Amino acid sequence: MDVLLDNFGTFAEGVLTTIELTTLSFAGALAIALVIVTFRVSPVRPLRFFGTAYVELFQNVPLLLWILFFVFGLPKLGIQFELFTTAVLAVSMYSAAYYAEALRTGINTVSTGQAEAARALGLGFGQSLRWVILPQALRSVVQPLGNLTVMLLMNTALAAGAGLVELSTAANRVNLVEAEPILIFSGAAVVYALLALVITGVTRLLERRLVIHR
């Protein structure tokens, strides 16, 4: 345990970066997913095509490749951010494809009668989606969104491939000095498990309060 306590500062910095990366990426992914799922169910064909192309593109290319492309490719196009911001952007855009599909599943659980009733009240497509369909869809997919957020947390470790010092990178750096791989990486694994349990606990709490049983 001494090796963990002696390097507490390095681990704490890595844990904090992982939490920040997860939180900001979750917010970004959910915001992008709401736009993409709107495109996916839009009556306008070009928007549906764009939404489908986005999902297929990001789901069929590994996240690590996207992170490396964003970090090393975008500057060549004149687009450059700090490394942390770039990692948030890459993880958000990648995760948004999965969040959007989960939301689309939720939309499919809303009865067509709800949409017809909204139209009968004079609401347009955007208003029906915003005020009637999406709120119900979100409440129907709390658990899948929670599972995807745990996956997002695990995926943040891939940012180490671009040099971001998050938890796994911090553990590796400590191990290069202390040469105690079992203890060090076991400690990092326990922290990841605890963070995942927090997300699962919040998901269950929200599910009990919000979920719609059909």
Descriptive report:
This protein has 214 residues and is mainly α. It has one domain: MetI-like fold. 80% of the residues lie in helices and 0% in strands. The chain has ten helices and no strands. Helix 8 packs antiparallel against helix 10. The longest helix is centred in the first third of the chain and has 33 residues. 31% of the residues are buried. The mean pLDDT is 90.
Could you give a short description of this structure?
This protein is mostly helical.
Q: What order do the helices and strands come in, and which of them pair?
A:
Layout (H helix, E strand, L loop, with lengths): L1 H5 L1 H33 L4 H15 L3 H11 L9 H27 L2 H9 L4 H16 L1 H14 L11 H12 L2 H30 L4
Helix pairs in contact: 2-3, 2-5, 2-9, 3-5, 4-5, 5-7, 5-8, 6-7, 8-10, 9-10
Roughly what percent helix? over 70%
| Mean pLDDT, all residues | 90
CATH class descriptor name = Mainly Alpha
Biggest sheet features:
none
Count the domains: 1
**Any idea what the radius of gyration is?**
20 Å
CATH superfamily: MetI-like
The share of residues in extended strands comes to under 5%
Q: Could you give the order of the helices and strands?
A: HHHHHHHHHH
CATH topology: MetI-like fold
Instruction: List how many beta strands DSSP finds.
Output: 0
Number of helices: 10
The shape, in one word, is flat
Which parts are unreliable, with pLDDT below 50 for 5 consecutive residues or more?
A: none
What is the CATH architecture assignment? Orthogonal Bundle
* Helix/strand/pairing category: mainly alpha
Please report the distance between the alpha carbons of the first and last residues.
50 Å
Keywords: Amino-acid transport, Cell membrane, Membrane, Transmembrane, Transmembrane helix, Transport
Family: Belongs to the binding-protein-dependent transport system permease family. HisMQ subfamily.
Protein name: Amino acid ABC transporter permease
Domain ABC transmembrane type-1: 15-203
